[in-house]
Amino acid sequence: MQNLQYEIVHIPAYRGIGLKWDGLYTDVSSLKELIHTMSDRVGELEHVVNPEVQLGLSYHLRPEGFVHYSVYEVRDEQQLPEGMVEINVPEMTYLKTHHNKGENIGETYFKIHQWVKENDYEPYKETGIDYYDDLPIKHERYPHDRDLKDPHFDILIPVVKKK
Predict the structure, then answer these.
(1) In whole numbers, what is the pLDDT of the chain averaged over residues?
(2) What are the pLDDT digits (tens) for 72-88?
(3) More confident residue, 150 or 2
(4) Which residues contact 39 (CB under 8 A, 6 or more apart)?
(5) Which of 31, 48, 117, 156 has the fewest C-beta atoms lying within 10 Å of its C-beta?
(6) Is there a contact between 138 and 125 (Cβ–Cβ < 8 Å)?
(7) Would the pTM of this model clear 0.85, i.e. be above it?
(8) Quick one: which of 71, 68, 92 has its CA closest to 15?
(9) From the CB of residue 134, how many other CB atoms can be counted at a distance below 10 Å?
(10) Closest Cα to residue 107, out of 2, 31, 8?
(11) What is the DSSP letter of 2?
(12) Structural domains of the chain, ranges and CATH numbers in brackets
């Protein structure tokens, strides 16, 4: 049984370039292929900030599914390679924790949701946008050396202080 450590971190705005997936939970196997493809294409990014850390940015903007960006942080001078998309992530405050190899990812997210409910924060939600999950925005940072079948990675949930 995992015992998660939590911290509140502030991350400046950054630019990501990579691949976009918009699908249903039932189609998530195609997302795994897209993530693998993006890790193979990182070499096309001449101005990547850290090629050892792949970012997974999920936005629960649709019922039964979500939008996911598999990207790498890049510097401003990076051109957009063929077939890739750009996402600009604003400066935000995050709840940060680490998912360990060998643990259940669903349980990790359940514990994060419990922590948020019991503390002075709530998930950040952009005004005027409908979200379809208790944790509507999930940012994950995958180390390059992860086991694709049983990964370890950092989880960052954008949060704001409860009013």
Answers:
(1) 94
(2) 999 999 999 999 999 99
(3) 150
(4) 54, 144
(5) 117
(6) no
(7) yes
(8) 71
(9) 13
(10) 2
(11) -
(12) 7-161 (3.20.80.10)
pLDDT at 3: 75
30 residue type, one letter:
S
Are 41 and 129 a contacting pair, CB within 8 Å?
A: no
Q: How far apart are CA 65 and CA 136, in angstroms?
A: 11
What pLDDT band is residue 43 in, cutting at 50, 70 and 90? very high
The residues pairing with 96 across neighbouring beta strands, listed in sequence order, are 7, 156
C-alpha–C-alpha distance, residues 75 and 87, integer Å:
12
DSSP assignment letter at 58? E
Query: Residue 20 is which amino acid?
Result: K
Q: Which of 106, 112, 98 is nearest to 143 (CA)?
A: 98
- pLDDT at residue 2 above 70? no
